[in-house]
């Protein structure tokens, strides 16, 4: 993707311009806006989530935005996932959110985000015991390159 296109994708994610879905994320239900078309092209989970009858959508819900509850994902991790989907941006992925991002990547079937989530060096992880438990939960080889 060109730098201009990347910047534009980051801008529409940041501003929520033309967003047609709003996620209520985490325990505090932080509202995070996104675009169904972009999400559907990134994940078969999102594609299934947003499958609809086009005629019904046009006639009954033309001016109604969708809201999706996501109580089991941390808002910061959800934002990292969206930044990756929109612009291949991993600048906010760090030891504090790596395991939460891994959970979101597995939940929404974003395999290209799993690897970077696992490559955070062990000393930078917020809680190494939690990281071990999560990787076992997902049947992943833990930190083969970092160990």
Please tell me how large the radius of gyration is: 16 Å
Q: What's the CATH topology name?
A: Potassium Channel Kv1.1, Chain A
What is the straight-line distance between the termini? 33 Å
Reading the helices and strands in chain order gives HEEHHHEHHHH
Structural class based on helices, strands and sheet pairing: mainly alpha
Average of the residue pLDDT scores = 83
- Per DSSP E runs of 2 or more residues, the count of β-strands stands at 3
Widest beta sheet: strand line-up: 2-1-3
Shape: globular
In the predicted model, the low-confidence regions spanning at least 5 consecutive residues are 142-147
Quick one: biggest sheet? 3 strands, mixed
Going by CATH, what is the homologous superfamily?
A: Potassium Channel Kv1.1, Chain A
The CATH class is identified as: Alpha Beta
Q: Summarize the amount of helix as a percent range.
A: 40-55%
- The number of helical runs is 8
User: Which CATH architecture would you pick?
Assistant: 2-Layer Sandwich
Number of domains: 1
Domain BTB: 19-94
InterPro entries: BTB/POZ_dom (IPR000210), SKP1/BTB/POZ_sf (IPR011333)
Pfam family, one: BTB
Protein name: BTB domain-containing protein
């Amino acid at each position: 993707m060109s730098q201009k296109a990347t910047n534009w994708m980051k801008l529409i994610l940041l501003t929520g311009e033309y967003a047609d879905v709003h996620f209520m994320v985490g325990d505090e239900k932080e509202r995070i806006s996104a675009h169904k078309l972009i999400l559907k092209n990134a994940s078969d989970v999102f594609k299934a989530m947003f499958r609809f009858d086009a005629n019904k959508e046009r006639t009954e819900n033309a001016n109604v935005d969708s809201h999706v509850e996501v109580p089991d994902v941390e808002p910061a991790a959800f934002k990292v996932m969206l930044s990756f989907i929109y612009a291949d941006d991993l600048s906010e992925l760090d030891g504090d959110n790596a395991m939460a991002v891994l959970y979101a990547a597995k939940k929404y079937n974003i395999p290209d985000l799993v690897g970077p989530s696992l490559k955070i060096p062990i000393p930078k992880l917020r809680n190494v015991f939690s990281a071990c438990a999560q990787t076992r939960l997902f049947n992943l080889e833990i930190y083969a390159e970092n160990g």
